[in-house]
Amino acid sequence: MFDSDITERFVAYSPAHLISLGLIFAAVLLLFAFRGPLARRRPASGRYALAGLLAACEILLNVWYVSNGVFRPEATLPLELCSISLYLSVIMLLLRSRLLFQIVYFTAIGGALQALATPVLGYAFPHFRFLEFFAAHGLLLLAALYMVWVEGFRPTLRSPFIAWGAVNAIAAFVFAVNRLTGANYMFLARKPPSSSLLDYLGPYPWYILSLEAVALLLFLLLYLPFARSGRRGREPARAPSP
């Protein structure tokens, strides 16, 4: 399970993929169902637990890279959008950062949903990489939703544009890294080999411009529930978590 040899390749929407999606969906439903008790009983403990689990996923992944001799700057640096969201999520959870929430809510949910629907993954269940991939992306969803349902954070009308600007700033840095290393982080150099949303957005480099529009539209859709509720980004009055 922990070695780098591939005995069976990942197949999208195989039983293992669908079960993994089902388990993540069940975890989201459980978080929603218990949001009230969690908010009343030391919500900081939940934040720290999620931060610890996310950090553990990233640490174990890098241990696996090194121990199997597959760590390469052009392939294994944490420069994919979900990897960057993971690091930001850990800091957001530990510091209860409203500023990072304005970014992570959109990048974590939008990025994780895309990754879970069309995984760029070479390893099938029960390989470590399969388990780590779905655990990390599921935890990204839970981290963002925890801040909404338990901590009472809300994005504002400006938040989608803040997140979109942050993604573009990150992409500019990642593009430079790609040019220096020959990498393809955030798929800014070419499309992934497996099927993905990018297949419908035109050839390189035009799909990058299409993806800009899709990202902004997705961020606005993720804000829509809060616009309809009329909350406009205001948090309920409550004492800060310890």
What does this structure look like?
The protein has 242 residues and is an all-alpha fold. It has one domain. It contains eight helices and no strands. The protein is globular. Residues 231-242 have low confidence and may be disordered.
Overall SS class: mainly alpha
Number of domains: 1
Radius of gyration (CA) equals: 18 Å
Main β sheet profile: none
- Give the % helix: 55-70%
How many extended strands? 0
- Average pLDDT, rounded to a whole number, is 90
Given as residue ranges, the uncertain stretches (5+ residues, pLDDT < 50) are 231-242
Outline: globular
Helix and strand pattern: HHHHHHHH
Transmembrane segments: 12-34, 46-65, 77-96, 103-124, 130-149, 161-186, 206-224
Protein name: Putative ABC transporter, permease protein
Keywords: Membrane, Transmembrane, Transmembrane helix
Briefly summarize what is shown.
With 242 residues, the protein is an all-alpha fold.
Present the secondary structure layout:
Blueprint (H helix, E strand, L loop, with lengths): L14 H19 L1 H6 L2 H25 L13 H15 L2 H20 L10 H22 L9 H23 L24 H24 L13
Pfam family, one: TMEM164
Protein name: Putative ABC transporter, permease protein
Keywords: Membrane, Transmembrane, Transmembrane helix
Keyword list:
single chain, mainly alpha, about 0% strand, disordered C terminus
